[in-house]
Specification:
Helices cover 54% and strands 7% of the residues. It is an alpha/beta fold and 617 residues long. The protein folds into 2 domains: 214 residues, no CATH class; 261 residues, no CATH class. The longest helix is centred in the middle third of the chain and has 39 residues.
Length: 617
């Protein structure tokens, strides 16, 4: 017969547990002894003072050399701008806190509101700018911005505040704006204002300090680029709106991509440290201490959330390594061969088996629409042999290198966020460099999709137009087949669509209508769960530019895919459209910062292609 537990004993256990939980929340403000340094020993049932670890004092100044140089460069640009505008010299002592930044953005927005009301491209800009920077300044004032991680004795905050204020002043004084400029300024608060919980805890981590230095430097370089924009254009145009400076837009877009990469690396390191710390805390709990059950459960939940974030970051980091860094030995071999010959180079969770259903299944859909599962793998294999010595045409390795190192290509692949890119390869003829890189990306995405994952489901869909150039002999050379192939790949690679949704697609689908096919693709894509990352790569679009009818149909397919991206469904969408030369007929579908235009003549790898090695990322 089981023993009865007295009510008094139950109440005592509950009281002990509540004390443990309460003490765990103490922060030392009531008394220094009642803080996070006090821990509960479940075995001895006593409170102990945790022995403080002797931190390894870092010499931080050398870690921030990059930031100090970037600060000096920014101040140089600021002074040039002030001289050109005949403004008084800069007094950094007036920018000792973020209040001045808030005042600057308010003044600029007031001056721009009338202009914004007359321009649909500027609609909502001033409101977003105010909201973003107000939150940024508030968090900066409470030590939640990444700059709080930087040692105060380096005095890097004032120059950053001053740079932001001068940019706002330029907007206010000239009334000049350009889509690339205001979008860059608008994005800065979102990128920089998400560091709460990372600061002060890990102030002795050298890697994190180096990443903070890189982030600071990239922000300074971006502000300097914006001011250079004003100096080069504002006084030449002499009007309230800039002309379209595509080169400046591209350079500013690249700078913003570098800021995003630096912020991503900083946060990834901080999340790694946080996950490591939480794991250590979790392991320190005594397994037989029922008094700590609730606290342990809370920590486990936190660890679960952190594990989800870490795994998603690991997936994207793995893509960077396997897609682009895998090119490193290949490019190095090319360099070695060039040196030897002494010749110049040529310029989710994992998908699970669906439960048996009585209605439409993915296999039925694929079979009825004659899906060829080998189409894309075969095209990829054909393109990946372009690097072989016996390839019919030499591969432009300089162009491969330029794509591999382009910051906006890196952000498209490695940031855990939706992104859209049109990449114009810039070649004066159809060449294999862009398609080789696209094939490399798709090849590794297909491999990634086969790996089991608890928190992320990678779905790659792709099409290589230049492998089907003759629409009269190859049925896949029609834009309708491009759209149908993407639809069927989605059905094949995500087997968890509800059978009723598949049936709706079949009922409404007209295989001969681009509009109908794209509507079905949109219908299914909007039903993907949040843990899905849908990679869509369409390469060789310039092969579908002639005749005019095929060009128009291609534009319809791409236009509908871009509209799907703009609708921002629950899944993460990463769409990449690639042409070897340039697809001008598609460019109006994209925003300025979404277009990458490589030059016709790209720089040699590492400068002198015969003497220098390939620089790693």
């Amino acid at each position: 017969m089981p023993k009865k537990i007295s009510a008094a004993r139950v109440n005592m256990a509950m009281a002990e547990h509540e004390v443990v939980e309460y003490m765990g929340q103490m922060d030392g403000t009531i008394h220094p002894a009642l803080g996070p340094g006090t821990v509960y020993d479940g075995q001895s049932r006593t409170w102990l003072q945790r022995q403080p670890e002797s931190p390894l004092e870092l010499d931080l100044a050398p870690l921030y050399e990059e930031s100090l140089q970037a600060k000096d460069d920014l101040m140089s640009v600021v002074n040039k701008y002030l001289i050109k505008t005949k403004s008084p010299p800069l007094d950094l002592s007036t920018f000792d806190d973020w209040t001045t930044v808030r005042q600057g953005v308010d003044q600029a927005c007031t001056a721009l509101e009338k202009a914004a009301s007359r321009d649909k491209d500027m609609s909502g800009f001033t409101g977003k700018l105010k909201k973003g920077f107000h939150a940024l300044c508030q968090n900066a004032g409470t030590g939640k911005l990444f700059t709080a991680f930087i040692p105060a004795d380096l005095m890097l905050t004032s120059p950053l505040c001053a740079g932001l204020n001068i940019v706002f002043n330029a907007l206010e004084q000239t009334g000049i704006y350009r889509q690339a400029v205001y979008k860059a300024i608008e994005q800065l608060p979102e990128i920089l204002d998400n560091f709460e919980g990372y600061l002060e805890i890990y102030d002795q981590d050298e890697k994190l300090h180096r990443m903070a230095a890189r982030l600071y430097a990239e922000v300074c370089l971006t502000l300097g680029e914006i001011l250079q924009w004003f100096m080069k254009n504002a006084f030449v145009v002499g009007a309230s709106r800039l002309l379209t400076p595509s080169r400046s837009s591209a350079k500013l877009g690249d700078r913003m991509a570098e800021v995003k990469l630096a912020a991503k690396n900083f946060k990834a390191r901080a999340v790694f440290l946080m996950h490591k710390r939480q794991s250590e805390i979790q392991q320190s709990f005594t397994s037989n201490s029922h008094d700590q059950f609730r606290t342990r459960r809370q920590v486990e939940e936190l660890c679960h959330l952190l594990q989800r974030q870490v795994e998603r970051q690991d997936v994207f980091q793995d893509m960077q390594i396997k897609v682009f860094e895998s090119l490193q030995p290949f490019l190095q071999q090319v360099m070695t061969r060039l040196i030897t010959e002494n010749t110049d180079p040529v310029a989710t969770t994992a998908s699970t088996t669906p439960e048996p259903v009585s209605e439409t299944t993915p296999d039925e859909v694929l079979e009825s629409l004659l899906y060829d599962s080998d189409l894309i793998p075969t095209d990829v294999d054909r393109l990946l042999i372009l690097d072989q010595p016996r390839s019919p045409a030499p591969l432009d390795m300089n162009r491969v290198f330029s794509i591999r190192n382009h910051p906006r290509v890196k952000t498209w692949l490695t940031l855990d966020e939706s992104s859209l890119v049109l990449l114009n390869g810039g070649a004066d003829r159809l060449c294999g460099a862009t398609s080789f890189v696209s094939a490399r990306i798709v090849h590794h995405l297909l491999q990634q999709a086969r790996k089991p994952s608890q928190f992320i489901c990678t779905i790659p869909v792709a099409f290589f137009c230049n492998q089907h150039p003759d629409y009269r002999r190859d049925v896949m050379g029609n834009p309708s087949e491009l759209a149908m192939s993407l639809l069927l790949q989605l059905v094949d690679r995500f087997r968890e669509f509800d059978s009723s949704n598949l049936q709706k697609c079949m009922d409404k689908l007209d295989p001969n209508s681009i509009s109908s096919i794209c509507k079905s693709l949109r219908f299914l894509a909007k039903r993907l769960p949040p843990n899905v990352v849908l990679f869509l790569v369409v390469d060789g679009l310039d092969s579908f530019a002639i005749p005019t009818e095929r060009q128009d149909q291609t534009r319809e397919v791409v236009g509908r895919l871009v509209r799907l991206y703009r609708e921002q469904p629950r899944a993460t969408l990463k769409f990449l459209f690639v042409s070897a030369s340039r697809c001008a007929f598609l460019e109006e579908l994209f925003e300025e910062e979404e277009i990458i235009n490589l030059p016709t003549v790209v720089p040699h790898m590492g400068g002198d292609p015969r003497l220098e090695g390939v620089a790693p990322w």
